Amino acid sequence: MELTNKKIILFDGVCNLCNNTVTFVIKRDKKDVFRFASLQSDIGQKMLSDRGIDPEVVDSIVLIEPGVAYYTKSAAAIEIAREIGGFWKVLNVFNHILPESFRNLIYDLIARNRYKWFGKKESCMVPTAELKGKFL
Questions:
Q1: DSSP state of 15
Q2: Crossing angle of the two packed helices 73-84 and 100-118, in degrees rounded to 10
Q3: Which residues, listed in sequence order, are joined to residue 34 by a DSSP beta bridge?
Q4: How far apart are CA 14 and CA 114, in angstroms?
Q5: Nearest to 124 by CA among 18, 31, 34, 45
Q6: Beta carbons of 36 and 22 less than 8 angstroms apart
Q7: Is the separation of the CB atoms in 74 and 100 below 8 Å?
Q8: Is 29:85 a contact under the CB 8 Å cutoff?
Q9: How many Cα atoms within 13 Å fall on the side-chain side of residue 69?
Q10: CA-based torsion, 28, 132, 11, 47: positive or negative
């Protein structure tokens, strides 16, 4: 699968909030920009390792632009919102008015409590046949 022109979202495959976010992004990915893999998958683990990202520190979302850059935590969320466009592009303003350390404090609070607040699946989601091509 050719990925050089696709942005890859690594997500926590057992987290309900993360899975709902993936569904949200897929519905708004009109330009077919994104591909997805769970952090728990072999390919997700390899992508983290290749970039020196500790899965104990970043365990909820990573956005990878192959050959360009990668983003974690709040920066990943803002980049994804910017890419899907529309109203969500407005979230990019937080890149300019709030320091990343502060944004990540809020992000980490939500990430730490995501299972308690939104629930957890027993296993990673299995994409429908229609969406299978979007997952690595």
A1: B
A2: 90
A3: 7
A4: 11
A5: 18
A6: yes
A7: yes
A8: no
A9: 5
A10: negative
Q: Dig out the tokens for 30 from the structure.
A: 């009109």
Strands (E), the chain: 7-11, 34-38, 61-65, 69-72
- pLDDT 10s digit of each residue in the chain, 136 long? 556 689 999 999 888 998 899 999 999 999 999 999 999 999 999 999 999 998 888 888 999 998 889 999 999 999 999 899 887 777 777 777 889 999 999 999 999 999 999 998 776 666 777 778 888 8
Query: What's the one-letter identity of residue 136?
Result: L
User: Which two three-digit tokens encode residue 110?
Assistant: 């939500």
Q: What is the CA radius of gyration of the chain?
A: 14
Distance (Å, rounded) from C-alpha 71 to C-alpha 65? Answer: 8
Kindly state the helix (H) or strand (E) to which residue 76 belongs, with its residue range: helix 73-84
How are beta strands 34-38 and 69-72 bridged, if at all? unpaired
pTM of the model: 0.87
